[in-house]
Structure formats: structure tokens, C-alpha cells
Amino acid sequence: MSTIAAISTPYGTGGIAVIRVSGTDALPVVDSLFSGKRSLLDARPYTIVYGEIRKKTTAEVLDRVLVSVFRAPHSFTGEDVVEIACHGSLYIQQELLRWLIEAGCTMAAPGEFTQRAFLNGKMDLSEAEAVADLIASESKAAHDLALRQLKGGISTELASLRERLLHFTSLIELELDFADHEELEFADRTELSRLADEISAHIGRLLSSFRTGNAIRNGVPVAIIGPTNVGKSTLLNRLVGEERAIVSDEQGTTRDTIEDVVNINGLQFRFIDTAGIRRTDNKVEEIGISRSLEAARKADIILLVSDIRNPQSVSFDYTDWHNKTVIPVLNKADLLQAGQIGQAVAAFLSSTLLTALSSECRLSEPLCLSAKEGDIEALRNRLLQTVPDMQGVQQNVVISNVRHFEALQRAYVAIERVRSGITGGISGEFLSMDLQDCLYALGEITGSITSQDVLNNIFSHFCIGK
Fold first, then answer.
1. To 10 degrees, the CA torsion angle through 46, 52, 55, 60?
2. Could you give phi then psi for residue 229, rounded to 5 degrees?
3. At 14, which helix (H) or strand (E)?
4. Which residues sit opposite 195 in a β-bridge?
5. Per mean pLDDT, which range of 108-112, 214-218, 393-397, 441-445 is the poorest?
6. Distance (Å, whole) CA 428 – CA 173
7. What is the value of pTM for the model shown?
């Protein structure tokens, strides 16, 4: 394989930048440009050497650098790796990279360093994907989830399942080798049935964790829905902590969806402020209202905002809100006395809207607040409570990757066929095929079974230099 090089730090000017080089010629190539007290070829592994980057043919000095040396196989990629820490000038970074390519390196493709780590057995595919997730993490919850995956949480879980399945698959294959002796049965069907039940339940738990994992990884989408002039934009501004949306007494001010991300106790929420829902002849406002309802359909949580003085005024199509969490928010509580607030809540609780919603959605208790006065702490706490299984995230394996989820779905379908096949008394040949399908799907997650096209697709989404 060629020796690759890339800038590993983000693009731009900074205090320092790091250029990474990996491959069999990594040390000779960098040493041809390095001038220090000793040659890099003589440097011990895991040491840092100070010197200059210069063209030895012309004595042109580019920069003073620190060079870290890692020797195969004990490096990130499993190859000889050299990391050059230079000053963060864009000119120095680009010129150093150009000099390295002239000296024999090739430009690294996106994710090629991590792909080589996978190919050289330094990590499996799910752990390699965790590297990208760790880099992209923007909250503590996303960071912790990616770090557990990088440490092999999913890999360990699946390895145990595959090992036990492989045992039974081997026994059934042995039966097929003695097909002429139908009385021979090496794989105990009762024990296999018990294992299939256990694996089915285990995969089911992993699949059910995807909603939580996806929320942690990508942020929980929250749509702020309601009529005009109930304070939706004010609520968004208060949640975000800045004047993100225009606030006006004029109806129909918000014509399009406005989105922003808020970190609440280490978990990201993606809030979408939407156009107020009302009857209108304005074509532009109609488009905004249509986008509001579309945002609600795509959200996991809906903040159904209304004016506490007239909470029954909300009226629109909510038939697509099945299985969504709806938090009724009765805003402008500062305009009522305490006794009046109680009456307003009672009226809302007995409204036909709430009755209809309770049959369609996961309906939360209504919250009375004043977005104008900044009274939203109770709403923040309610939002955290609506994200399922957050307490178990720290202890359990959680699926957050769509590719893993799809592979687990195929594994689940296959193991269910095994269960029904045992009950139906199908032949070992068909049982073996179903077991192989389950094993194949599980193997796709860790990369023990995969195709080059899958690898190319996964690593193409990495940043260059990682």
C-alpha cells in the first residue's frame, strides 16, 4: 500500500497544525525533509523529535517542528506513522503537504487512516465508525455513546451472540453431512429453540434502543406548533437564549420554519419554530403553515403552544402524530391570576382537542408558563423526561447507527424464521440457511463480513486526515 499524508487538524489558521503520514515509507519520506540532532530512522517508537523541515537540496527551511514517531504494528493504523506538529499557518500546512507528496506520499482519501486501522485489525468496523461519531459529537451524551462504541461495547455484545449461533450452525451443518442417516440429530432442537428465543429478545432490545441512540447522536427534533400570536417565537428565543426568531404582535410574522439546537444537560434538542396555524388567503403564509405541519410529522416531540386565555383555539390536522410525544404548553400565564390559571387548565383538560390527542399521541401533562418572563425551567425538565431510557444509556449498549439498525432488523427477521422453523419442524437445511442469514447480518455490523462497496461508502463520510 502507498504511503499517505494529510492535514489532520481542522482547516484554518491556528497555533499549531498536525500533518499525519502513514505507510511503509513514512519514516524515510519524512526523514528526507527533516533536519534534527538525529535521523528519524534512528528514533525510538513513541518519542517526539525536535528539528526543522527543510529541502536538503536547496537548504530552504519551511518551519521548526515536533515530530512524533510510531512504529508498526503499534500505531493507530498498524503501519509506521509519523505526525508532524508545525505552526498553524495555512501556507506552512499546504507547503509541507506539497513537499511530502513530492517526496513520495500520496494524498489520503477521506477516512483512509481509519480504514487502514480496520484493514490491519486494529479495530472492527463498528469501532471505526465510532471514531467518526466521536469527532462529530456535540454533546456529552453523544460523546459518551461514541466512546463506549469505540471501546467495543457493540462488538462485545454481538461477538457473544455470533459465537453461540456459530456453535449450533456447525452442528446442523454436521447433520447435513450425514443426511443419509436421518435419525442423527447433533443439534438439540429444544436447546436451539431456547437460544433462538434469547437471541430474538436480545436483538429486539437493541432495536428498541435505536430511538434513544438516534436522539443522542443527532439531537431530538422538537416542533413548536400552535396558532398565531401564542408566543411560539418568544418561546424559541427563550430556549435558545438569544433573539433567534422575530417577535411581533402582528399575526403571521413567522412565514417559514426556524431551527436551532440547544444543549440541555448534555443532550441536544433541535427546536423548530413554525408558522402559526390559522385560516389565511395569503399564499406565502399557506406554504409556511404546510411546512409547520410537515415539521410536526417529522418531529419526535411536539410542543403544542396555545394562549392560556383561550387554549381551545388550537385546530388543525393531527392524525399523523401517532406515537409522538405531545407537551401542551399554555403560554402567557403572566396575564392571569392564580385562580384563573387553575380554571384555564381545567377547561383545557376537558377540551375535545385533548381527548382526541390522547387517543393519537403520547400526551404529557400540560405546562403553564410565561415565555416572555423566562419561566421555562419546568419545560426543560419535561423535555429531558420525554427522552426514553436515558437512565439506562450509561449501563446498556445503545444502537445509534442506521446501518447497524438495518443489519439488526435483518438478523431479527432471520432468527424469527429460525424460531418458527423449529416449531414447524422444518429440515436442518432450511434451519441452517436462516441461521447463516442471521450470522451474516450480525457480521456486517462488525465488518467480519462486508463488501468493498460498503467500506468505501462508510469511510467516504469521514473527514480527510482521519
1. 170
2. 60, 35
3. strand 14-22
4. none
5. 393-397
6. 8
7. 0.74
Q: Using alpha carbons, select from 465, 192, 222 the residue that is nearest to residue 364.
A: 222
Q: Which residues contact 333 (CB under 8 A, 6 or more apart)?
A: 308, 341, 368, 369, 370, 375
Residue with cell 469511510: 459
**In terms of Cα–Cα distance, which of 45, 82, 86, 83 is closest to 65?**
86
Query: CA 229 → CA 105, 123, 190, 350, distances in Å?
Result: 62, 54, 65, 23
Instruction: Write out pLDDT tens, residues 311-352.
Output: 665 556 666 777 788 898 888 888 888 778 888 888 777 776
Q: Give the side-chain half-sphere CA count within 13 A for 278.
A: 18
DSSP track, 332-396: -GGGS-HHHHHHHHHHHHTSHHHHHHHHHSEEPPPEE--TTTT--HHHHHHHHHHSTTGGGTTTS
> 78 in the Ramachandran plot: left (φ > 0), alpha (ψ -120 to 50) or beta?
left
Contact present, 410 and 437 (Cβ < 8 Å): yes
Structure confidence at residue 279 (pLDDT): 57
Q: Quick count: other Cβ atoms within 10 Å of Cβ 310? A: 14
Residue pLDDT, tens place only, 59-84: 889 999 999 999 999 999 999 999 99
Tell me how far apart the alpha carbons of residues 237 and 20 are, in angstroms, rounded to a whole number: 43
Q: Whole-angstrom Cα distance, residue 440 to residue 276?
A: 49
Report the run of H or E that residue 28 belongs to, with start and end. Answer: helix 26-31
Q: How many whole angstroms separate alpha carbon 79 and alpha carbon 5?
A: 13
Element (H, E) at 304: strand 301-307
Q: What region does 158 belong to: left with phi over 0, alpha with psi -120 to 50, or beta?
A: alpha
Q: What is the mean pLDDT of residues 166-176?
A: 66
**Amino acid letter at 144?**
D
Judge contact between 61 and 52, C-beta under 8 A: yes
> Among the residues of 151-282, which ranges form H helices?
153-177, 189-208, 210-218, 232-240
Does the bond joining 73 to the residue before it have cis omega, within 30 degrees of 0? Answer: yes
> Computed from CA positions of residues 219, 124, 456, 90, in that sequence, does the dihedral angle turn out positive or negative?
positive
For residue 249, the model assigns a pLDDT of: 46
* Cα–Cα distance measured from residue 374 to residue 229, given in angstroms and rounded to the nearest whole number: 17
Q: Is the peptide bond before 366 cis (omega within 30 degrees of 0)?
A: no
Q: How many CA atoms lie within 13 A of 56 on its CB side?
A: 9
- Mean of pLDDT values over 431-455: 83
